[in-house]
Please model this.
Amino acid sequence: MSTKSVRIGETIYGPDQLIPLETVSQYIGLSVRTVQDMASRRALPVHKIGRNVRIRISELDEWLTDTKVRGAQPPLRTQTRRRGQS
Model:
């Protein structure tokens, strides 16, 4: 879990703070609608508080780390035999 504070816009959030989906969208660079869709599918680590949906900064950071995709690796080169070679 992250122990660092994070600045999103003009506000600084502690790692244990719950933030609204609008702020999450700014933090991860996706549209609010995409974040809302991901939250409704439980693709993000959400907390429902009454009618409000929030995400804890430290859990979001952990989720981002866990879902990180490694860059594409170049294909392995295989030796091909030319005609006439044994």
